[in-house]
Specification:
single chain; mainly alpha; two-stranded parallel sheet; 9 helices; P-loop_NTPase; Carb_sulfotrans_8-10
Length: about 160
């Protein structure tokens, strides 16, 4: 449906027949990341004017799920994994392994296309950062965040997430 495509075209702008045809014709890949790590990343990138991580989290919680920024909105509400049958779900932290598999499945040469990933270093850094940032939050904020991202935590295997506890 190239005549209806613009860079910002959303799937909801098409009718059901067009949506079914597109979803059936494409390989669907969903990239997911621990919601708490997404929050840390957004805070570190300066998304928001909060001076501390705790106040940033409070701003996110105060915005609510319906008015939340796309940057920290729960993935389930953005990607509809219960409605769209994704062919691949790629977890942040396992990019090299999972993208290699994805490229092999597509019949593409793996070694020449994949950049050098440092998954282990990234995982260690985010683990350390998560501990530090999580300790800044009040018990109430921790509970509210777990509730805010409850569907993401249920839909994806974020077993090491600080919000899973």
């Amino acid at each position: 449906y190239p005549w209806r495509r613009r860079p910002e075209t959303q799937l909801s702008e098409f009718n059901l027949t067009e949506i079914e045809a597109m979803l059936g014709a494409y390989t669907k890949v969903l990239f997911v990341r621990d919601p708490f790590q997404r929050l840390i990343s957004m805070f570190m990138q300066g998304m928001g004017s909060s001076p501390s991580f705790s106040s940033f989290v409070q701003d996110v919680l105060d915005s609510g799920q319906h008015k939340a920024s796309m940057a920290w909105k729960p993935l389930v509400s953005l990607c509809q994994p219960c409605l769209v049958q994704y062919d691949y779900v790629v977890m942040f932290g396992f990019l090299r392994q999972e993208l290699g598999h994805l490229l092999r499945q597509a019949g593409l040469p793996v070694d020449s296309l994949l950049p050098e990933f440092t998954d282990t270093q990234v995982q260690w850094t985010y683990s350390w950062l998560s501990e530090q940032m999580f300790s800044e939050l009040s018990l109430q904020q921790k509970k509210q965040l777990s509730h805010f991202y409850r569907w993401d935590l249920a839909a994806f295997p974020f077993s090491s997430s600080f919000l899973s506890d």
